[in-house]
User: Fold these one by one.
Assistant:
Number 1:
Amino acid sequence: MSESLRERLARLRREPEAGPSVREQLARRAARTPAPVLPERLVREQGILARTTPGDRHGSLALSDALLADRLVLARDARDERFAGFDPADALYLDTETTGLSGGAGTYVWLVGLGTFAEGRFSVWQGFLSEPAEERLLLELVAERVRACAYVVSFFGKSFDRHRLEDKMRMHGIAPPFADKAHLDLYWPLRRRHRGQFGDCRLRTLEHELCGVEREDDLPGSFAPAAWFDFLHGRPHRLEGVFQHNLDDVKSLATLLAHLGREVPSAPVPATEEPLK
Amino acid sequence: MSGDARKGGERRARGAKDLGQLVRALQSEPRWRTRFERWQVVPPRVARVEPFPEQLDPRLVEMCRARGIPELYEHQARFVRAALEGEDVLVATPTASGKTLCYTLPVLQRLLETQGRARSLFLFPTKALGQDQTAVLSKEVEALGEDWHACTYDGDTPPSVRRTLRDRGHLVLTNPWMLHAGILPNHAKWSELFRDLAFVVIDEVHTLSGVFGSSVANVLRRLVRIARHYGSNPQFLLCSATLSEPAAHAQKLVGRDVRVIGEDASPSGERTFGVYNPPLLNAVAGLRASALEEARELARMLCGPGHQTIFFCQRRTAVEVLTRYLKEAAEALGLQPDEIRGYRGGYLPDLRREIEQGLRAGKVKVVVSTNALELGIDIGALDVAVLVGYPGSQASFWQRAGRVGRRQKPSLAVLIARSDPVDQYLAHHPEQLFGTPQEKLGLDPDNLVILSEQLKCAAFELPFRADADGGIGSDPGFGAARDAASVLDYLAEESRFLTKRGGTWWWMADAYPAQDVNLGGEDPDNVLVLDASTKKAIGEIDRPSSITTVHQGAIYQVEGETWKIETFDHKNRRAYARRVESDYFTEAEVDVDVRVLRLEERASRPRAADPGEDWSIWRGEVHVTTLATQYKKIRFYTRENVGAEDIHLPAEELDSEAFVLTLSDESAAELGLMAGDRGAAWRGLGMLLRRVAPLVLSCQPRDLGISTHVRSPHFRRPAIFLYDAVQGGVGLSEILFRSQRALLTAALEVIARCACTHGCPACVGPTEEVGMLGKETARRILEHLLAGPALGKSETEISESAEASA
């Protein structure tokens, strides 16, 4: 590129700063030791699998407690009759990490945590986008797994995760698998039950208050986009922290489901904005 | 002129059943007769019709017949045929020539052919137009008895409707801003629309010039990319007012060759045009009566309860002042005050709808408007149009004149010339008005600022893959853009937004670019004007204008009501006003500083008698700082100056392109520029050049900024700067550079013909500003510049010999 074009661009463009969050994160990173290189296995297989043993606890509940959730209670909470036949073992527990909250074509879903039960054991497959050019491959794997399950469980997924995934799938011509899938978004029933009780209805708050989950050195979700960008640019990154955070999020889906399906509400559930399906 | 004769004329005018009598009165009465420089009558035109094209579905033919349309005008038939045959088409004819039907028929045809699968996208330059057209299209769909949906998708669309529209909207009507920030960045949600996109219809294409047009051209490039991604290749159907170079304009806008249909075959009644020059009050000073005051006087003849009249003013304040004058004179006009309305873009939507409705229904007899009513909003056809001042382009002239003329009935359009070089030029050469448009539209989709911002948005939407040669020539949208790959590289290296990996540029940031990129046509940075006590919005103004219109102490007008600005919260874009009874209005003054950054091109001429330069023109980049300094208080009616106050607001900064004219010191001395009040005469010449610019390029005077120096710090000699008043420039100064001869010729013509002796507002400016020798000096300079050998290309460096002698 000619020198003059570069000069002109520099002068004419009033360059807006990169979002404060990114810069902030980069600044914090400056003093840190480099994180380990990503395992080759991860890059090769497009995802890693974390298996748990039956009886493994996440907070004060065992993950397998989800299997004991009362489906009638859940059906009422989900306001969806399809959950009357709900079997927690047939569900996919979903949580994603993206590069932004605004949606739109330029937002990447780069980490997809999908939890499932098999023979009483809870496993989480974390699909990872190690190269933006491989987006289609990751999305196809995710679509396949969603298609294979009977139900989807998420936290705020109906408003966010599902749409991010669907948008990207549509961009690549992959038929989005969510349309007819019964989806239990735990945020809404939990909010109805516990609004005003704990100060907010965020996942971190609810998992802690209701299920006794304590996270050590958790990397907040806001660091996720920067972690991925750092990794892609070959800079020291915090991907491991994000993977752990995502894993904890998915596990909390299981325990919050267990909590929800365990308690019988003492007061009638108030009507809210969620319409009956 | 005795009072009785005048009253008689008014009575006659009010009793006139047809405009013919009115025109004859204007042509015969001594008071008016001498002031009309020229009358032009365009005889009634019979429609030229053609049968419906054979490919057209019989149900559509039936629908037209049911609406009282037994056949098509020639231009409509040609358009429809070309569209049905798969071409991109542009119809460039005046208002009310039936352009809507041109695009409606192909769109509905395709829907019928595909059993409702094809989709079409419509772009209108204003929300109001879009919403208007939705109603029209819905009715037609209903008439066909099909279950298709026509819906507006804009800021007012409720969320529930948005989803239906995305999934099932066959006809999506929107505007460029919504397309840019709402639809394209979320294209996955619109995948069905893009997959089946058959047509993109764009209305009022002549408004797509300048920054706004250049940005929209890029938004369309993004649209084409995305459509191609989902497998469609939509056709473009364009509508425009008459243009000087329609094919070239369309090509720049949509990036492909477009078939142009320009002959208006619709019928019209007899059209009478009058060019009115206000009387000379002072021949020596060349002072003419104010065009606005003349409009007020003419109103007594031209307004009445039996017909509808529209006044077009150039400035918002003029609209307010004239509306107020006319409302006060309502009784003398035979009208009620509420039958007289003012109208401009800054009014809130509900008020505007009310006035439009009143015009259609015939209840509003007189409307005074800015160019806001120039566009195709349906207000019915009126009878008399008065243009207070030339609107700056022939396209605008014809759009405004096109507001009058009911089928088979005569109409009248009067142009009142102001004390302005262009107006006076046209008053003496009205044939230029009636011929083909002369002005070129400035449109530069490859303007670096605009292109780089739009490439960010495009990269967010779909990554860019490099071709084997490293460029993106094969990209369906941006393939033809100059330097696009280099700009992408720049963005990847210097900003945090893009990353290049393996030959592809990816968007890599937690940001949504379209939100921060504005198209330039409507500044999201608008300043809201609020009632200080109720905090309710009473109007809106763009940011650059705000420093001169809503500064503290400014008088702000809405429909003739005066409000005073108590505080202007510049940072938060809010001005607070209080209703006052004011007998004065305010006018602000600005200081402009221009700094040269980079010179790109130069043409010069050496002196005849000795070595050294005679004069040069240049083209390059500048940085401009504009500071509002003070405002004057001017009494209504008498225009007396009743005071002045300071303005304390931050300066507006601008990086743009400029056209510069410099004169060597030797030549300047020879031409008398060095003796006497040289600065003033040179400034007068600069002002004149700026004001005749609209004769060679399509722009409003305010699109060009000016700065004159007797001794420019950069060039160290007399210099006149004319710069694009937009960030990055949109090619206006380049047009001036190439058309310098036409510019100078027009300026000389104005001076030569001007009736004043030493200078006046209609040529170089009043003698108080340009000195007693102002006009003479400017004429000598122009004659010198135009005589002798032409300019030749030259180095942009100032030569040593010139420096030494400077």
Note: The mean pLDDT of chain A is 81.
Number 2:
Amino acid sequence: MKATLSALVLSLALGAAGCGSSSSKSGSSGSGGYAAPKQQTAPAPTASGSSGNTVSVTLQNIAFNPSTTHAKVGQTITWTNKDAVPHNVTAKTGGSFKSPTLNQGQTYSFKPTKAGTITYVCTFHQGMTATLVVTK
Amino acid sequence: MRILTWNLFHGRAVPPAGRDLHDRFAAALAGWEWDVALLQEVPPWWAGSLAAACDAQVASVLTSRNALLPLRRWVAERRPDLIRSNGGGANAILVRAPLAITEQRAVRLRVWPERRVAHGVRLADGTWVVNLHAQVGSERRAQADVARALAAWSDAPSLILGGDLNVRDPRADLASLGAHGVDHVLARGWAPAAPARVLERAALSDHAPLLVEGSAGTGRPLEA
């Protein structure tokens, strides 16, 4: 336990000292109560953006694109992994969804039921962060 | 010549294994047949032991996040999935006999957002083999890293440049010996001799190892 705590403290300190590209974005929280996420296997959308009731986000070049996504309550946000490396989509603040590991071509969808700002990350890749802004 | 390129993901697995995976990476590398291995995101303290496991020569360079390295190592060996890429990084080139390293050269490409280095070794036949991990998250920066690396070895008539280039279509006037995603092996004076293969690595790393085979084509390698 002591070793774990020491490792955690050192890890945080070294992370702060690192010269990497990570940049955590903080979002306002307090907008829980989201619908259960759903993994999909349908063909992936070909471009990022909003189309009807679906908002698309791609995971490419170890980044979410776009890094900030705007959606309305009830719309479906679909993430598509276009990288050859696996990713996931995991809410850090403002929400509680977590996708399974997404290999190339796989998608994950989530439909928010409340307005708010959610920051999310890929837990495999440091600095791979993005924000989802949900409005009514 | 068989060239392997593999980004080791700082010695981690997907999904996270929660423990040090040095021996598993070493066993995987030792079990594959290659002549030169281009490794990126290598825990810096692994380079020598991986080479020993593979009965190979090694040349390595530090890349980014290596300040206070002993502390980083201490954490990474205990909690690799906690410290992740902050455990420190290196690129390493392993060379198996009968090939041999006669010279090495490192060219710093950038320090921001992350320190990137093109690192090459010259083999006894005169061929330069360059290992590159280009900047992630920006195609413009990644292409610039590739261009700078090529410029640094523009005078090499026999050149193999491989690694995690972080672009799908690198702008380079070189032949492709093979690619998988953003992992490439490019060459001047060499041509593909066999189809590129993606090797099975279980859950090790987030990148798959890519094995290519090249034969001296137009512009033969210089004689030693």
Note: Residues 139-152 of chain B form the longest helix (14 residues).
Number 3:
Amino acid sequence: MSAAPATAGRLRRRPRAARSTSGSGALGLGVATLWLSIIVLLPLAAVVAKSLDGGTGAFWDAVSSRQAVAALRFTVLISLAVAAINAVMGTVIAWVLVRDEFPGKRVINALIDLPFALPTIVAGITLLALYGPTSPVGINLAFKQSAVALALLFVTLPFVARAVQPVLIELDREMEQAAASLGASPVTIFRRIILPSLGPAILSGAALAFARAVGEFGSVVLISGNKPFDTQVSSVFIFKQIESDNTSGAAAVAVVLLAVSLLVLIGLRFVERWAVRHDR
Amino acid sequence: MIVSRRGTLGLRVIALGYLAVLLLIPVGVVLYRTLEPGLGEVWRSITTPAAVHAFWLTIELAAIAVPLTTAFGILTALVLVRGRVRGKRVIEAFIDLPFAVSPVVIGLALVLLYGRQGWFGPWLADHGIQIIFSVPGMVLATIFVCVPFVVREVAPVLREIGDEQEQAAATLGASRWQTFWRITMPAIRWGVAYGVVLSTARAIGEFGAVSVVSGKIAGETITLPLLVENRFNNFDLAGAYAASGLLAVIALGTLLAMTLLQRKGDSAT
Amino acid sequence: MISATAVTKHYGDFAALDDVSVDIESGSLTALLGPSGSGKSTLLRVIAGLETPDAGTVVLEGADVTNLPPQKRGIGFVFQHYAAFKHLSVRENVAFGLKVRKRPKAEIRAKVDELLGIVGLAGYQERYPSQLSGGQRQRMALARALAVEPRVLLLDEPFGALDANVRAELRAWLRRLHEEVHVTTVLVTHDQEEAMELADRIVVLNQGRIEQTGAPQEIYDAPANDFVMGFLGPVARLGGGLVRPHDLILAQHPTDGAIEAQVERVVHLGFEVRVELELAGDGELAAQLTRHEVDELELHEGDIVYVKPGGRVHPEGSALTAA
């Protein structure tokens, strides 16, 4: 095939980049990096810098104050619990959505994404309507730790379900049939054949759910009542510090919170790499 | 076949029960409470000057943030998937960062950069530019949270379709821009659309970051979500519900768009 | 002994199996042969318990298993796409059925090693299925099925996903294995050559019904109807009957009962030669000759020859013909 002279010239001039045919290459990388740096990295760098404003001593003081520690402990523990609960429930929901049939399934499937689409503040108000002081069924969890759990369960609901669904759909049914033909009971089949295949997806969803939960603000701020040493989560603690103009203290706790999220997400990368090892 | 009939039913009950308790019934209750005072009252509540301003401000923020992040999202996806330069790993690592950062921290970060005592504070003051406690700051916050969405939706599509068609276009003489516009764009459009819907929903619903950055100046920097909190704290429960209802309707519209686009995306492959 | 009696299975309006009955002798290797959609896989899965029939019974060695799940039937099943447990090693795959039966570790270890030796995968214990070729995965699947000492071994197009030469190799290997191990084996295939090579008996299915059952040679030489004849080998239509192309005799001179034809094309296929003929009374025919025969006749394109059947002619239009 004879290429037009212009194309031939271009191909000759940049032999290696000839394959990148639609707008990538060094320029694209540069622009993308610049954009990311200004929008995302620079602000975060400012936080890290501010947290060390008074030196590591001040950082440590801010982070180890009784209130900060209490908030952090509560945040991490409740986020772990919520991630664990939604890991189980998300798997169950994904199972039912993929393997079961019932009227209205399509609607339910679409509604799973509601927590993603709904503003967090609206989520908070919604839960408050049913489980707060004006509850029509008399369940008042407002200002209790369980209320925080409820809000976090709501906003992290879709993570595991949506991570597991595609894997479940792709799952080779013949593996289950083979196991059945070899004598395994349904429970054994689930435990030994299905769960291992779903494992990485469940972990991935749970990790994202955890990362989201530790930083969650909007849905928690109204329903938790923000009681220090009780229902105060780190994000609200940080907010209060900002309001009190203690930005370096806020930044210090923010850095710790960031570190927790990042650690989980980095761990996730390793899990994903491990999972690919067996897949074919 | 693997689960017995009773087991199947049991799982269904558990799943639906959980969803009901956590999702469906609360939403139902809020809808009821919102409409309780009557549609007229609801309408009045969302057409107050404050509410109207909040609505348009929210739309404005989305209208700026979403196209910007979409454009750069497509570019970033192209670099990540088609680029043959080193350093993509860096971008890959940071693209998901907004998911890991608490909204409050985002707000704090922007204040530390562009606030009066921030890194650029003095320079901005000298030039009379107000970012924090003003709309530009809120735009930056909204952009921050929208960064990952389009990239994450477009990159897998790009990976899946492969670059053979683009190579063919090149051999036929198409310039890079022509190839992108005529070949790549049509192939990724449903991914882009889905990403746009997701980031729009996120932009409209953003609360924490905007809350810190806005200063909640009445009539100026209050978005719809901030209005909901405002009214709640002022014991105007009905007003809070009304504003929530509006946001919820938008959210349901988003859900609908998501569902339809997912189906489009599935049938296109 | 396997007895399937009056088995019927519908998927919506589609009848996968329609009142099918078949008896399979213990220790034999039986092939269920037929085109896609004939019901052969469905029948196999009904025997396995992976499908429940709408009507009919399945009896394995005297016990009625119709309502038993596959776990309890004592069968071994091998799938076309291997169904390997991807996250388990070869050893763990083969050991699976034994682990589920809670056999002692030492016994499992010994059995796995023995079976891997039999299937030619000795030394592959710690590999993973993703590291094996298709043929190796299928041999692993066989070892896995045999590990639990099934009374019946069921294979669903086991070589369908493999390359032609691997297929041929494994075919021969399976026959040898069967001679050694002697488990009642039922094999589903759409490849008539495979069925003829491997099976003691062939059951020919078409559109959910059994067309014929018998030993390979029986079915080939005395097909019950046009469908069976056409499915088991090439056919040529001559004078209102069906005849095998290699049973046609060509001559340069007219003979009694021969029909005039013109040679359209002479296609050399290695040892065999296909001679495409245009019949005088309109119609086309392909005869199969050896190179030797073609050389002797000195056939060229455009020659006029005289064709007559040298073997059995089966009158056309027997019952239950495929369209």
Note: The CA atoms of residues 83 and 280 of chain C lie 55 Å apart.
Number 4:
Amino acid sequence: MSAATKQGFARVQELYQDRTQRIKELKEEGKKIIGYLCIYPVTEIMTALDLVPYRVLGDMREPITKADAYLPSVVCPFLRSCLDLGLKGKYEFLDGVVTSHICDVGSSLSGIWRYTVKTPFHYNIDTPHTTHDTSLNQIKGVLKAYQTAMENFAGKKITNAKLKKAIILHNEQRALARELYELKKQDPPLVSGAETLKIIKVIQSIPVVEGNALLREVISEARTRKNKPAKKNARLLVWGSILDDTPLIEMIESLDANVVIDDTCVGSRPFFDDVKITPDLIDGLAQHYLVDIKCPRTFRARDFYAVKKNYLEDLKTRFSYLSDYAREWKANGVILQSVRYCDTHGYEVPQVRDYLKEIDLPGIYLEHDYTVGGLAPLKTRVQGFLEIIE
Amino acid sequence: MTQEVKTRPLNRLKSMYALRAEVDKMYQAGGEAEAEGKPVAWVMLEGWANAILNAMDIITVFPENYSSLCAAQKLAGPFLERAETEGYPTHLCGYARACVGYSARMVELNGQIPPEAPAGGMPRPMLLVASGEVCDARFKWFQSLGRYFDAPVWTLESPSPNARESLTPGTYERNTQFLVNEIKQFVIFLEKLTGKKMEWDKLLFTGDGTNKINRLRWDINQLRKARPSPMHTRDFWSVMSAALYRGAADPTVIVEGNQKMYDEVKYRVDHGIAGINRPEKYRMSFEGLAPWHSLSFLDSLADRGWNFVCESAYSPGRPFKVDLSSVTDPVERYVRKRYRSLASVIEQEFEPEEASEVKEEIMREGSSNRLRLRHIREYQCDGVVLHVLLSCRSASSGLTLFADQLLDMYKVPSLIIEGDIIDTSLFNPVEAMKKAEAFEDTMDHYKKVRKDLGFEW
Ligand code: SF4
Ligand code: SF4
């Protein structure tokens, strides 16, 4: 067990400052650690095999110096940063890396990582692009093959009972994360946007059971602590590509705004839907990982067989959850943000903006280059945006 | 003293012109189809949809190709600017942004083709066929065109396993079934859309035509291994559209055009005639997508003796035979004739012993340098131009690693040129030429290194 003495927010801060701390202890205890990129690798299968999932993230505070040799600068700097850290030995404690077809370059990073960083085990899940019935059928086969590969790596089989237990544990984490987000419905929110990001980042860096315990501590502390966020004029929804550190949110929250809800992947995205327990457990996992997670990397539509497209209906099908978020969390503005060179989010931006116009919610789009310094010029734009929010 | 006759640097193939004209016909057919009220689909380049759509009498046009045509005629700029004002980030695929700008103009003109559009323009689509192959733009771009058209979008799924997973038992069969099922659903959708029934014989006929074209393109490319190489990359690019973006054109016409090209290239090989009108000093490969707006840059390089003898994009796959005697389902026949397992590709490309080494390498390393770099060895290239594109990650992301592996394995150096497929402002020809001139010393150096190490070239 962990020798952690700190609890709740203090423990979050400690692990946020060194998120490898706990994982290295576990490694010394003989646990096998599996890095996973993005939220599509099925972590339940790792947990069921007693492998510890550890989210691979970049570091926007560290200049990219080694990855240039393998990934040109036209590639998403988040991916370049991940590879850079790998090349600098900062992921050397990993026993394996699981990637998926999150985006085209994300998928090819698997091969480049294997070739350059040389983590012993690798697997790439070929997640289909649409939610067609055929794709759902396909991903079931893909996940079964992935399960077999992981079993071979771990040297044991997953029993139905073990997988079910793992799904329940991960669902518990999803429920706790939602409970955490419930606290942000209050005005002022009980947890700030920057704190939320830290908490999510930290629970993706420790085993799920420990993450759940930590979430419980944080939730109970947030309810009673005195130093909660101040009341601000703007309650914002932040949408977009990966944000794996706090500078952008901190910049926003240093102004007259609280980030009360997000649609990002070190945020609410992996947690807002549970995995259904189905007779064949892979069916529930397939549905969750292909259909339920709402990320622009998947082409979703209400009816693929409709012979005429109704743009407004299409927008509603794809983005009405954003309107639900805005209503439930009383958000009065949206910050759309994306790291430069992210294509899946880039094409989505004009459409999300169309939808926001439709539901009469002001929004602004910020593109950044995944550096802290690059955020400075955006502050004036956010300030200007906040002025129009009532 | 003999007087030097200055000919054009490139020795263009005569048979190229007729094939290139077929592409213009494709756009013409699009325009006529609209006038006659025939359904038109905008299609992403991929392996399956065109023949299916044509078999259902749907006329196909290819925005990806149309954008490159706009760029080649230096007419893409205003469309790109329009996409920017529509709120599309400037790092997105240049083809996509030009198409978005075009679509926005079309909406402004109540569905009419913008008068500034070259080659007669693309008619308004009744269907958009996106693809799961190659890049994210191929489906995200068409999805976002919902802003401009009420045409439905079908994304034709396609498996994209990485090399190692491809070699895992079961993957090929699962992916074949995925393609079969996906195409069947696509056909059901098309039947609903058009109110027509699919004519399977027509599909198999067109599919066979595609296979014949592929074979000829493959055979032509094999001839390019000769010294001097008889066909330059610019000719390859000029005619690839007729094969890959041929729309509803009769495949037999394209087959004939390619047969003529094969004959001409063969004649050149037999008579030692090169694809450039200068001594072939450097044999080159072009890796990445073409700088459509600045193709004459390659002519300037040809003037210095650079003969581009192969290229990474749009290359035909090696033809293969498959026993379909027990397969009666037309879709499955269609798929199995063209979809190959990675294992069988390796087995055909290499001798048995080397094939198992390549497979082992993939299982160990995740990919195989020998597989990835084999065209450089086969075409005996002295250097490689890597075209890193600001707006296309799929064609650019692997290039730096490629350069690294190539130098390491075959001692062939690479010249990195940054630019774009569409946007002229991102390419600096003067600077690129300076780099190219300096690169000749590097190529000369590595020629010696290869010789010292006993390489074949
Ligand atoms: S941010 Fe975008 S480009 Fe980068 S890994 Fe994620 S989906 Fe891919
Ligand atoms: S491969 Fe590149 S250039 Fe081609 S459509 Fe995709 S993003 Fe655009």
Note: The first strand of chain A starts at residue 33 and ends at 37.
